[in-house]
Amino acid sequence: MNIxxxxxxxxxxxxxxxxxxxxxxxDVGSLYAVADGDxxxxxxxxxxxxxxxxxxxxxxxxxxxxxxVAYVNRHADAHTxxxxxxxxSRVVAIIDSHDxxxxxxxxxxxxxxxxxxxxxAWAAWAAADGKLMSQGDFADFLDDRYIxxxxxxxxxxxxxxxxxxxxxxxxxxxGVRLDSGDVKLTYVEETAxxxxxxxxxxxPKKIQLAMRPYVGGPTYSIWxxxxxxxxxxxxxxxxxxxxxxxxxxxxxxxxxxxIRDGRTDKRDGEETVVHKGIGDVPIFAGKPA
Length: 289
Prior knowledge:
The protein is 28% helix and 33% strand.
């Protein structure tokens, strides 16, 4: 082999090597099968460089029915379906779900969840449900939450809270249930000024509350039964909610209805459409997975 032949062969190899690194325009959004040099083929997806992805992929979360409806109506198509699960109070919409039998399957990569949040009022009463509190803690609780009470008058609840706050240095020696069902607690003051002085505090048998179980949802009425325990001159106080699970189930069912049919508020004899529903999008009872 002469010098000229060697030079020519080296030039060809160099040109081939250089051409492998020359920039080439590709169709963005397409898939390419490329040899990896080891006898295998790998797939390169240029979807991320396109102006728009081939498919919608998203996992969204909203906290009220109006936002859920707005999102579904914005993206829904013939494949969209909704699942409502009562025990978890969760609603999930699969925007790109499977279509009916005989039709192409959906990717199920685009979803939105309704993650309902309890109102502060409901959370407060639920946390105190069935728990007996000290006299001072009970008074503070009533002082904070009397606004949720509709029967008896909230003013009475303020008076009860104030009385308990003022009677921290007394001995409670008895509790009597009156004909009305209310409870009368009798105490004895042992201060220097009023040694042996007796007094009474009447507590209602039950109170009626008006609360929104879920933020943005409707208001419901629920009863709470008064409870107490006398222990060595001290009194422990609390309430027990009557079947709160029934209220939560009713609240969730109403929210699902609102999602399907929309919400209309009535005021002064006039109806105002707050938001529309999801129309013909099917709603199934249960979870998507």
